[in-house]
User: Fold these one by one.
Assistant:
Number 1:
Amino acid sequence: MFHQTRLKSFAVTAVIAGLSLYAIFGGFFPREIVVEIALLAILAISLDFVAGYGGMVSLCHGAIYGIGAYAYAGMTAIAGFDAVTGTIAALLATALFGLFVGAVTANISGIFFIMATLAFGQMAYVVIFEWKALGGDDGLSGVSRYDLSAIGLDLDDSLQFALFCLALVLVVYAVAAFALRSSFGRTLSGIHSNENRMRALGLSAWKHKAVAFSFSSVLAGVAGILAAQHTMFVSPELLVWTVSGEVLIVVILGGLGTLAGPIVGAALLVFLKHEVSAYTEHWHLIIGLFLIAAVMAGGRGVYGQAEHMLRGRIRRPADA
Amino acid sequence: MLEVTELCKSFGGLRVSRNIAMKLEKGERRVVLGPNGAGKTTLFNLLAGTLQPTSGEIRLDGERITDLNVEQRARLGLSRSYQKNNLFEGLTVRENLALAAATARGGTSSFFSRIHESREVRETIEEVAEMVALADKLDLGVAHASYGNRRQLEVGLALATKPKLLLMDEPTSGVGPGMIDAFHRLIASLPRELTIVIIEHDLDLGFDVADRITVLNYGEVVFEGTPDETKGSDVVKEIYLGDWQDDA
C-alpha cells in the first residue's frame, strides 16, 4: 500500500529542487536536460502507477505518450483549436486509448500482458506512421507552447519552460499519490497483491484495472503534451517501443512501486546518459551494467533500496 | 436461505456430483463431510461459483444464483474462505481486513474517498478482529504472522464482507492439534444469524459446531441429519471405517 512517507516527500523535493537549481544556474543545455528528465519522470510515474501498484507492466506507455503529443499537435497545429481544447482532447485521447487497452488486456497476466501491450503500442505506431494528414513519417511541426503571459510567464524562455515542466512533475506525482491513497488506489493495491481474492470479495477486477490503465494513460498524456511543446514538433519516433522500454528501465532503476523512485530514476538515467556519452557512444552499455547491478542487488532500485534500508531501521508497516 | 436442487457436475464422462440436494435455514451451521474423493471440493466450488454445474439449481434467499460468477455471488452476500490461505501478502492484518471490508461495502472505484480508512470500515475491522481473535495483531505484517494467525485471518477476510452465507473450505486444515479446539470454539462463537456451510473431512469439527451434517460419498448425498443422528448412523460408520481400512 502506498503511504506518502517523509522519505518520499524528501526525495521528491530534493530531486526537484536540485534540478531547478541546475536549470537556473546552468545554461541552455542543462535546461534541455532538465526538460528531458521531467518528461521521462512524468512518464515513469504514470507507468509505476499501473506496474508498481497494479502489477500491469506495460510496454505501450511510449505509444500513449506519442498519442498525447500527436493529439495535442494535431488539434492545435492542424485543426487550429486553442491550447485548452487541444489539452483536453489530448488527455481524452490517451484516456480512451488506455481504457481500451486496459479493458482488452485486463484478464491477461504476466508475460502475455507485456506482449499484448507491446502489440497495441506497435499498432498505434504504425497508424501514426501511415497517417498522412498527421505528416506520416515526416512528423508534424508548428506546435506552440502554452501562452501563460496572463500570469507573467513566457514558456518560450528555456528556463521558464524547464521550471514549468518540473512543476508538472510535482503535480503529476501529487495526483498519482492522491489516487493511490484513495479507495480506488487501495483497491488497486489489493488487486496487485491478490486478484483472485479481490474477485472472491466481490470486486469486478477487470473494470478496475481498465480504469487504472486509463488513469495512468492520462498522466502519460501530460508528458506527451509537454513533449510536443518542448520541441514544437512531433514525430512517430515518440511512439517507438524502445521509448516504453526506456521508461520501464527508469522505473526499475528508481524503484518499482515506490512512486518517488521513478523521479530519481529519470534523473539518474538522463544524467548518466549525458555524462557517459561525453566519453563514449556506448552509453547504453553503462546503463545496462547499472540496471543489472540494480536488479541483482534485490531489484528494489536506487530509491527503493534506500527506502528498504531506512524502513528496516524504524520498522514501519509494510509498504507494498 | 440456501437451496440446492438436483445439482450435477460432470467432467467429461466422470460424474463428480450427482443430484445433490440441500436446504439450509437462516443461521444454520451445516458441515459437509465425506472421505477423500467424495466430491466435497467440487460441491464447494459449485456453491462458491468457481465451477458451473452441468445441471441443477442453486438459490440464495430464493434468488437463482446458478449462473452467477464468483464476484456476483460475493456481492449478494456469499463469502468464502480457502483451504489454503489466500491472503494479501506484504500487507498488515489491518490492511487485509480493510480491503475485504471496503470491497464488500462498495464504492471502491472512487478517487475522492478513502473508504479503507473510514470509520465504518475501521469498526468492521475491529469487530472482525475480535471474532477471529486477532485484535492485538492488527499491525502485524501478514508475512510475519504464524500459520495459526494466518488461518484466523483467512476466516476474518471472509467475515469482513459481512456475509449472509459463509462457505468455509476445511477451515482447520493444517492447524495443529493444540489449536484445533480453539478453532472449533472460534467457529462456534460466530454470530448466530450467520448461515455457514463448512466442507470438512474431520468428523470432530462436524460434531462440535454443526446443526446438521451432510455426508457425501461418490458424489452423492448418502446421509443427512443432526450430529447425534450422524454418530449413530451405520452408513457413516461404514464409509469412515471403510475409509480407514482402505488407508491401512
Number 2:
Amino acid sequence: MIDYPGILAAVGDLHTNSFSGLAPPIIYSTKGNPIQQNPFQVWLWDKWLRYWDYMGEIKTRTKLPLVLVLNGDSVDKNKYAHDELMSLSDTVIQAMAIDAVQPAVDVADIVYVVRGTPAHTGQGSWYEDALGKAIGAVSPNPAAFGEYKQHSWWHLYLELGGVTFDIHHRPESSSMRPWTRGAGAMRIAKIVMDEYIQSGDRPPDIALRNHFHHWEDSGTNQPTRAFMLPAWQGATDFTHYIGMGSKIHPVGGVYFTCRDGKYSPWEQVVYSPKRRKAEKALG
Amino acid sequence: MLEYEDELLAALEEAKTVEVDGLRDEQHTITAPEARKALNISREKTTALLDDLCKSGKLRRDMVERVSGWGHLKRVAGYRLVSE
C-alpha cells in the first residue's frame, strides 16, 4: 500500500455570520440589502486571503496535494446571541458560508468538513453538513444513496503520507490560564493515546482540536502530539462577559507536510491584531 | 468593452472539459483565481472585472465543478458564460 505524501492544512472556528467572525466582503439580505464587513472583518479577510495565498505557495513549491480540514464552527447562528449575527436567514447564512471558505477551497485538492458546536451550527451541525455538500467535501458514508449522503464528520480519523490524525472540534480538556498554557494539550495527547491503546489500536501521531480559540501544543512529550488551533473570530460579547476581553486573540491555522510517516516541515501560521491604543481621557 | 474583457472571454471560450476517472470539470466556466492567473492582474482588478461582467449579463456567478490533482471532484464558486 502506497502512503501518498501530501499537505494537511487545518483551520477552524471561522464563525461566519457572526459580526466578529470571518465574512466575505459583501453579502446581501433576502431583500437585497448589501451588508458589508466591519473594520475588524476587513482585517480578518485580508489575513484569510494572505493565509491561503501562502498555502498556495507551499503547494506550488512542494508539488504536493493539499488536504483541507475545516475543524468545526465554520458557520454561526448562535442561539444565545442573535444581535451579534449578520443574518437570521438560513439561505443567506449558507451562501455566506460558501463564499467565506472559497479562498481555502480554491487551493485545496480534497476537503473535509468537521462538525462543530450545535449551539452555533444548528442541530446535528446541519449548517456544516450543508456547507460540505455545497463545496464537495468528502462524505463519511459515500455508499449512501443520494440525499442520505452526509458531507461532514463528527470525528475524523485520517491518514496522510503515513501520518495518522485524530481530529474533532471540541477538546477533551483545556488550559485557560497563562501559567497552565499547554497543559490542556498535554492532557488531550494522553487521553487520545489511552483511548487508542484501550481499543488495541496504534495511537495517532497527531490530534487536532479547536473550540477554545487559542493555540496549544503538547510538544514532543508524548508519542501523540496534540494541538489546539486558534480561531478566525475576534472577541464577542461572551468573550467580554467571561472576563477575557483584554486578551488579544491571534487568528490562523497549522499545516503539516506528511511523507513517509513523518510530519516535517510543519508550521503554525498566525496573525495577531494590534491592541487598541489607550483612550486618552484628556486631550 | 471593459479592460481585459476580451482576454477573459477568450479564456472562457477556450476552457475545455476535463475528465478524470469519470469526474469532470465544467466547460465555459472560470473561477476567480483561474481568471487572475489567465490575465495576470491583481485580485482586486479580477474581482472588479468579474463583477462588472455579471452586472452586464455576460457572466453568471454559480457553483462550478473542478477535478483536483487527486481526481477529487470539488465544488467552488465560479463564473459561467451566459449564452446569447
Number 3:
Amino acid sequence: MTNDFSIIGKPIAMVDAAGKATGSGKYADDLSLPGMLIGKILHSPFPHARIKRIDTSRAEKLEGVVAVAIGQDAPNPYGILPVGHDEHALATDKVRYVGDNVACVAAVDEATAEKALELIDVEYEVLPAYFDPEEAMKAETDLIHDNKPHNIEKDYHHVFGDPDKGFAEADHVAEARFIANEVTHAAMEPHCTLAAFEIDPHTGQPGRLTVQSSTQVPYYLQHKLSLVLEMPMSQIRVIKPLVGGGFGGKSEVIPLEIIAAVAARKARAPVKITYTREEVFWAHRGRPRTIIDLKTGVTDDGRITAVKAQVVQDGGGYCSYGVVTILYSGALLGALYDIPNIQYDGYRVLTNKPVCGAMRGHGTVNVRFAFESQLDELAARIGMDPAAIRQRNLLKPPCVTVNGLRVQSYGLPECIEKVVDRSGWKQRKGKLPKGRGLGVACSHYVSGAANSIIRSDMPHSTVHIKIDRDGGVVIYTGASDIGQGSDTMVAQIAAETLGCSLSRVKVVAADTDLTPIDIGSYSSRVTFMNGNATLRAAQDVKKQIASAAARKMNCSLEELLFHNDAVSRQNGHLGADALVRPAEQSSAASVSGRVEGQILRGSLQQKRKDEGPKDQMTFEEAVVAAIDFHGALTGTGSYAPPQEARGGNHKGAGVGPSPAYSYSAQVAEVSVDEETGEVTVHKVWASHDCGRALNPVSVEGQIIGSVWMGMGQALTEEMIWKDGMLMNPGLLEYRSPSSVESPVVEAIIVESIDPEGPFGAKECSEGSLAATIPAIANAIYDAVGIRLHESPFTPERVLAALRDKRSQKKIDLTEGIDPTSPAKFREHGGSLCFRGKGPERHPLDPSRREALSEGGDD
Amino acid sequence: MKKELIELRVNSRSHELALEPSTLLLDALRQDLGLTGSKRGCDDSSCGACTVLVDGVPMLSCTMLAASCEGQEITTVEGVSEHGSLAAIQKAYGDWGGSQCGYCTPGFMMTVKYLLAHNPDPSDDEIRSALSSNLCRCTGYTQMYQAIRAAIEAEQKGIATLR
C-alpha cells in the first residue's frame, strides 16, 4: 500500500459539520410527528421500596391525558447484558433508586403530562437501603435483587503467573487504598426518544414500530425493544438521528427508550420523551465509585514483579454493563506494561443509587489512576525517574500478555519519548518553582472488544456500498456517529479506496431498516471494525469496477490505478506521471463526466466505439461500464475479530481482548496553591498512538477531549450523594469545566500503523482519558509532595493532605455530625456531603427566627 | 392559561404567534417557529446551548419569556449563515474541529458572533472568558480557539480582498 494518500491522513471537516454549525442538523428532540404526544415519567422518591399499589385513575381523567403506562403494561425484563436482564420498562414490584421509573403519562403537551404525574397515587413500602458498596456486601436481608446474595452482582478472582513469587522477588512493595468517586457523562444532549407505530395495512392494527432515539447502539435497542414488546425484530425500526454526545451514556438501552415505545403502544399515538437534565443524571450509567486496594512490587532497578488489586465498584441498582466494567478493571492491568504476575479480585456491588454503566475508558480509568500513582511512588522510593520506570517495563510486541491479551502494534515507547521531549521533562522536572510540578502517566485502551456482548460468530460490523450510473457512492453503514466522526471516517475510507472525491460519497448510517448490523459505538470499536468493513466493501466494489474497466482498456487489473475520480492505466515507464495526469484533467473530466454518467446507454456505447480503447476513464465512465458488465454495482464487507485476538479460556476472559490497543503517554504541569488547596492544570502534553490518524483534526479533537474529560474527573467532577439522593444534578453543580478552567492541551499523534487496522488505524477516543488523572496526581506530588489517593483532587482533599504532611491535626469533616446518621462518613457513598450542622444561619432566616421565638418563651 | 397574540421578530422576519404568556422564548422558537437550531441542554441556565441574540446581546432563551421579546430583534443560529452559505465562523468550526457532537455549537455560534462583533481581535484570555458562558462536553475547547482565530483571519482576508 502506498503512503501517498489523497484523503486518508488529511485534516478535513466532518461530513455533517455544516448541519451542526447552522442548526439545520436534526437531533432526536428536534423531531416531531403529527399527533405526537409528550411523555413524562414518574420517578421513585425512595431509594429502595416495594410498590404496594398504583392508582392512575385520577391522572387518566385529566383532560389532555391519553394514556398512563405502568409496569404491568410491559413486564418482560431486559438489560444490556444477556446475564443482566434485571430491569423493567417501568417498575413491576420494587424501586431500587431515587429516580427509578414508576409510571409514564402520555399527554397532549408537557404541562398536562406533568400535572398528571401529580395525580398518580403510589403506595410504597419503604425498605432499608444500601448506599455504600462495602456495607451493601454485608447485607443478609432486604437484598436489592433477591437472586444476588450480599448484593454482589458479580465477583471475579483471577490469578495470572505467580503473584506470591513475584512479590517475594520484589525489593520494594507499595500498598495503598485508592478511591475514585463517581462521575457521569453529562453529554450536552439530554436523552430523547420518539416512538411511533404505523398501522399494518393487512390487519388494520398497529404494526411496525419506528423509534428515533439518541442512542449509540441502535441494533441493541432494536433487540431489547423486541424482548420487552414481544415483537419480532423485523417489525422494529430504530433510527439514530444526530446524537449530541454519548461517552457511553447512550451505549445501552436507557429506560426512556423502552418507556416511550410502551407508552406509544398504550396511547396508540406517537410519543416523544425528552429527559430533563436532572433525569439524565438519574439515568446515569456513568463511571462507578471505585475502591481499589492495590499492591505493586518492583525490583531495585525498576522492574515490576507483581501486581495485586482488589477492586470494589459501587454499581447502583441494576446490572447494566457492570459485569463487563469489573472485568475491564482487571483485564486491562495487562497490555500496557510487561507485568509477569497479576492477581485480581473484583467485586461489582449493587447499591440503591442510579445505575452505573460504561463511560469513556470503560472500567480502566480508576484502576489506571491507582496503578500509575503507585508506580510513581515506587519510582520515587527507588530514586528512579518516573518516565524511566515506565520505559523500563515496556512490552516486547508482538506478544501475548500473561492474561491472554495479544499485542501487535505498540507505540508506547514513542509516546513516552515524545511527551518527555516536548514538555522539557528532563530539563524542567524538579526545577520548577515551589508549588509547581510535572507528572507523567500512561494509559491504553481497546480498539473494540474482540468479543461482542452476545457471544456468537456474527460479524461485528457489516457495510454495503451501492454505486449507480450517476457515479454517486452510497455507503450503508450501521456505525453510529455520536459526534466522534464515524460518518466521515467511512466516507474517507471508501473515497480513498475508490480513488474518488469525498463529495461523491453519501453516507446512510445507523438505521436498522436500511443499514446492515453494526453492534454500536462503544469500546472504541468503530474505526477499527466498521472501518475495516467499509474498506472491504469498497475493495469489493472496486474489484468489480476494475474488471469492467480492464476490459475496456485492454489491460490487466493490476495495471489500473484509481485516483482523482478516474481509473487510469498505469504504464510501467510513466510511473509517477500517471499519477499526475489524471489530476490535471480531473476538473474538465468531472464536468463532462457528470453529464456523461447520465447519458443513455446507447449513446455512450456509440461514444466509446468512436474513441476505441483508452488509457483512462472517468469514474462515471468506469462505473457505467461496470454496471453494464455486471448488471448492478454493489459491494459488501464485514469484519469479525480474528480468533487469535479473542483472549484466553479462563472465566471472564471474554472482556479485555481486542484486535489492537491504543497507547497514550501524558505529562501534566500543575500548580498547587498551598493556602487554598486549589490545583490549576496549566498544560497537558498528550501523545497518543492511534495506529494511523485517518483525519488528524478529529484525532486531535478526540485526544484533547479525552484529556479534558480526565481533567474534569481529576479536579472537579463528582456525583455527591446523600441518602441515595443526588445533591448536584445540574451541569453547574456537577462542575463540568468551562473554558476558563481548561488547560492548553498539546495533542501529539503517534502512528504505529497497526497490521490489522484499516490503513493501520486504531482507536483514539478513549485511551487518553485514563492517563490524565494520574498525570495530574503525580504532578501534584512533584509540586507539593503529597500523594492524593482519592479523586477528584478538590481543595478540601488537597488541604487535608497538606495538613497531614505537616503532621497537623487532621480535620474531621464529620465533626458535629447528625447523631442519627451512620457513624462513618463514607456510608453515604459520597464524601463532600455530610449531615453536619452547617454554617450558622443568618438572623433573619425563618428557621432561626422560629428557634429564637421558642427560646423567648422561657 | 389563555393565549395571546405576540409578534416576534426572528432573523429579520416577523411572526405573529398565539402564545401563553408563560411561554419561554426557547419553546416559542423550537415548537412554534420550528427553529430547532437553538438547543435545550439543562434545566437551570447553566449550559448556554439555547443562547440567542436579543438586540445583539447573547441571552439564554430557556429562561426568558417570549412575550418579553416583543419589538426586539432576535437572531438564532439559523440567522447566522450568510446568503445560504456558511459564515466564516461556521466554516472554521467545521475545519478546525470546533464541533464534535455539535449540540452546543449553535449556542457557541451566538456567543462568538457577539464576541467578534464587539471585539474583532480578541486576546486568548478574552476568547476564553467569552466562551465560559457556554459548556461543551466533547472538545475541551482547544479546537474552538483555533477555529475562532481562523475565522478572524478569514474575515480579515475577506475584507482585504473587498478593498
